[in-house]
Amino acid sequence: MDVNRLKMMVIQIDQNIAFAGPKAEVIATHLRKFWTPQMRKDIFQEIEKNPADFSQDVQAALKLLHGEAKA
After folding, report:
1. What does the alpha-carbon distance between residue 62 and residue 35 come to, in Å, rounded to a whole number?
2. I need a labelling partner for 23 at 20 to 30 A (CA). Which of 4, 10, 31, 56 fits?
3. Interatomic CA distance for residues 16 and 19, integer angstroms
């Protein structure tokens, strides 16, 4: 999937998701449930290249997921 589309999607999730608890955890849960492993891999690579394109919550969520992927 096009990485620009993934960026747009994760930004929309960040802006629109209803959350109870730490927002990064809610975003990570959403990505874990609904994104394929390849989609998550692609967005990990993009955030490494352009971290400023993502909010602190999205960065924290992706760090959580990236840690799980390595475990």
Report:
1. 12
2. 4
3. 9
Any residues with CB less than 8 A from the CB of 66 and at least 6 apart, and which?
A: 44
29: its two tokens: 């849960």
Q: Could you give the C-alpha distances from 69 to 19, 40, 41, 54, in angstroms and in order?
A: 23, 9, 9, 20
Confidence of residue 71 (pLDDT cuts 50, 70, 90): low
Tokens 């096009």 belong to: 2
Query: Residue 46: which H helix or E strand, with range?
Result: helix 37-49
